[in-house]
Specification:
The complex is a heterodimer of chains A (339) and B (203). By secondary structure, chain A is an all-alpha fold. Chain A has helices at 4-34, 42-50, 69-83, 88-99, 111-140, 150-189, 206-218, 222-235, 240-256, 260-276, 281-293, 298-310, 315-331. Chain B has six helices and eight strands, in the order ααββββαβαβαββα. Classes of the chains: A mainly alpha (339), B alpha/beta (203).
Chain lengths: 339, 203
C-alpha cells in the first residue's frame, strides 16, 4: 500500500511522456511541411541522380563514382537534360530505354513511389495495434451473468487492471505509429532523403571534376568540359581556375563561330578569374592572347604576358603560348623574352 | 581441391555406407582426375579459341526505332543524318582509336562495306566514341575505311544507343528499326548473317 502513491506518480509521468512524444512527432511533422528545406540546386540534383545510375562499363559503381568515358558522358547528359527542364523520372526513362532497367541502381526513388511502399506498412502496423486494443477492451467489459468467486476475485481484478494498462499502452502504440507515419509522410513531402534509398551524400570533389574537365578539354570535347566547369562553379563560384578555363573555352567557341559577343563573355570571365587570383598564369595567358588576337591591343597583351611569365608557369603552358607571346612583343616593338 | 571433391561426392546418390573404404578412395581419385581433365580442357579451349566476335547482346532498343543520329562528318565536309539511309541496312559502329578490339574489327568492316557497296543494300556509319576527332580521323584513314563517320563530342549518341564501351555495333533495317546489338569486334561474316537472317524473315 505504501508503494501505491509512488506508482501512481510514476504512471502519470509515463502517461505524460507518452503523450508528449506523440505530440512532439506530430508537431515535427507539421513543422517539416511548413519549413521545407531549400530546393536542390541543378548540380545537387544531377549528383543525386548520377549516384542512382549504374555505370554500364564498370562493376557495381555509379556514374557519379566512375571516371569511365561512358560515365563522364552520362553525367554530362544528365546535367544537360536537367538544364533542359526534364524531370528525374523522364531522364531515367530515357536511360532505361537505351540501357535497360539495370542502369538504375536504386528503385527509382520518387517520393511518391516510396510513399506507396512505406505508408501502407505504417498503416497496417497501426491498424493491427488498434484492433488488439479494441479486442482487449471487449474482453475486459464486465459480463453480467458471470459469477466471480470471492477467492479469485482479487486476482481477476488485478488481471483486468493489468489488461487495462496493456490496452492503454497498445492504444498509445497505435497513436505513436500514426504519428510516426505522419512524420514520415511529412519528411517525404518536404523532399528529405529516404532511409535505404541509395543516394550519395558526398558530392564529387572539385578536384575530380576539374581533372575530368581537363581531360575532356584535351579530348576536344569542349561542351562536356564546359558542363564540368559550370558544375565546379556551382559548388565553388570563386574557383578562379574553373572561371578562367570556362572563359577561355567560351571565347574560343565565340571565335570559331565568329561571334564577338561570346568572346567578350569569355574575356569577362577570365578577367574575373584574375580579380580572384592575380597569380593565375593560365588566366593571364588567355587574357593576353584574346587582347592580342581579338582586340588588337598588343601593348595590353604584353602586360598580361609579362604577368604570365612572372607567375612561373609550367613549360607546357609556356610552349602553348610561345608563338602568341613572341608575336605580341614584336607587334609592340619590344624584344620577346622567349625564343 | 580435395575438399571440393568430397563435396561433390556427398552429392552423388551413393551413400558412403554403400562403399568400402577402398572403392571410396578410388572414387575420390577418379573424381579428382575428371575435375583436373575438365579444367585443363577448359583452359585449352579458352586459350586457343578465336576472340569472341559478333556477340549479340540484349538491348531494349531491339525492335524499336533507332535513335536519331545527325551531325557533321568527321572529316568536316558534309552533314550526316541517319534517316537519309532509309531503304538500306545500316551498320552503326561505335569505335575509338584507343580501343584495341576496334582495331581488330576494322579490316572486317572494310571488307563488309566494300562487298555491300557493290550490292548497295547496306552501309556502315561510324560513330567516334570519346576520341579526339583528329585521332578518330587518322584511325579511319589508316584503316582504309571510306564510310561516313560522326564525331560524338558530347557522348549523346552513345548514351542514346546505350553504349557501354567500344566496339559496339548496331544493325538497323531499311525501315529504321534496330535489329541487333553486337558487342565486341564484329566480322564481315557475322554482320552478313544478321542481315541475311533479317532478309529471310522479311524484317
Amino acid at each position: 500500500m505504501s508503494e501505491a502513491p509512488k506508482q501512481t506518480s510514476e504512471n502519470k509521468l509515463k502517461y505524460r511522456l507518452g503523450w508528449g512524444l506523440i505530440a512532439l512527432l506530430l508537431i515535427s511533422a507539421v513543422g517539416l511541411v511548413v519549413l521545407k528545406p531549400a530546393p536542390m540546386s541543378v548540380t545537387q540534383r544531377a549528383q543525386a541522380l548520377d549516384a542512382q545510375i549504374r555505370c554500364p562499363a564498370c562493376e557495381g559503381q555509379s556514374v557519379l563514382d566512375s571516371s569511365a568515358p561512358i560515365a563522364v558522358d552520362i553525367r554530362a547528359e544528365v546535367l544537360n537534360d536537367i538544364q533542359a527542364g526534364q524531370s528525374n523520372s523522364e531522364i531515367m526513362t530515357t536511360l532505361e530505354g537505351a540501357y535497360g532497367s539495370g542502369i538504375s541502381l536504386a528503385p527509382t526513388g520518387s517520393a511518391l513511389a516510396s510513399l506507396a511502399w512505406w505508408f501502407p506498412i505504417g498503416l497496417i502496423v497501426a491498424v493491427i495495434l488498434f484492433l488488439i486494443g479494441v479486442g482487449l477492451k471487449r474482453r475486459l467489459q464486465p459480463e453480467n451473468d458471470v459469477v466471480i468467486e470471492t477467492k479469485s476475485d482479487k486476482r481477476s481484478q488485478n488481471y483486468r487492471v493489468l489488461l487495462g494498462a496493456k490496452r492503454k499502452l497498445l492504444f498509445r502504440g497505435a497513436l505513436f505509429s500514426f504519428a510516426l507515419a505522419a512524420l514520415y509522410v511529412a519528411g517525404l513531402m518536404s523532399g528529405l532523403k529516404l532511409p535505404g534509398a541509395k543516394t550519395s551524400s558526398n558530392e564529387i570533389p572539385v578536384s575530380k571534376l576539374l581533372t575530368d574537365a581537363r581531360n575532356l578539354s584535351a579530348d576536344n570535347q569542349e561542351q562536356a568540359a564546359l558542363a564540368m566547369y559550370s558544375q565546379v562553379l556551382s559548388i565553388d563560384p570563386k574557383n578562379a581556375y574553373a572561371l578562367s578555363e570556362q572563359g577561355w573555352l567560351v571565347s574560343q567557341s565565340g571565335e570559331a563561330n565568329h561571334d564577338p559577343a561570346l568572346v567578350e563573355i569569355g574575356q569577362a570571365e577570365i578577367q574575373k578569374a584574375i580579380e580572384i587570383d592575380s597569380n593565375l598564369a593560365e588566366a593571364r595567358l588567355y587574357l593576353g592572347t584574346i587582347l592580342f588576337n581579338d582586340d588588337d591591343q598588343p601593348s595590353q597583351a604584353v602586360v598580361q604576358f609579362q604577368s604570365f611569365l612572372a607567375d612561373h608557369p609550367s613549360q607546357e603552358l609556356i610552349d602553348a603560348g610561345r608563338s602568341q607571346i613572341i608575336l605580341a612583343y614584336k607587334a609592340d616593338n619590344k624584344t620577346p623574352p622567349l625564343k | 581441391m580435395s575438399d571440393a571433391n568430397f563435396d561433390q561426392l556427398s552429392q552423388t546418390p551413393l551413400s558412403p555406407n554403400e562403399l568400402t573404404p577402398r572403392s571410396r578412395s578410388r572414387v575420390v581419385i577418379l573424381a579428382s582426375f575428371t575435375v583436373a581433365l575438365v579444367a585443363i580442357a577448359l583452359v585449352a579451349i579458352l586459350a586457343t579459341r578465336p576472340q569472341a566476335g559478333n556477340v549479340q547482346a540484349p538491348s531494349p532498343l531491339v525492335g524499336q526505332n533507332a535513335p536519331s543520329i545527325s551531325g557533321t562528318s568527321l572529316n568536316g565536309n558534309g552533314f550526316i543524318n541517319l534517316s537519309a539511309f532509309r531503304g538500306k541496312y545500316v551498320v552503326i559502329n561505335f569505335f575509338a582509336s584507343w580501343c584495341t578490339p576496334c582495331q581488330i574489327e576494322e579490316p572486317e568492316l572494310v571488307q563488309f562495306a566494300y562487298q555491300h557497296g557493290k550490292t548497295g543494300d547496306a552501309v556502315v556509319l561510324g560513330v567516334a566514341f570519346n576520341d579526339p576527332s583528329s585521332d578518330a580521323e587518322n584511325f579511319l584513314h589508316s584503316s582504309g575505311s571510306t564510310w561516313p563517320s560522326i564525331d560524338d563530342t558530347t557522348g549523346s549518341i552513345a548514351t542514346a544507343f546505350g553504349v557501354s564501351e567500344p566496339p559496339e555495333t548496331f544493325v538497323i533495317n531499311p525501315q529504321g528499326i534496330v535489329l541487333a546489338k553486337l558487342i565486341g569486334p564484329v566480322t564481315d561474316q557475322g554482320l552478313d548473317s544478321v542481315i541475311s537472317k533479317a532478309k529471310s524473315l522479311g524484317e
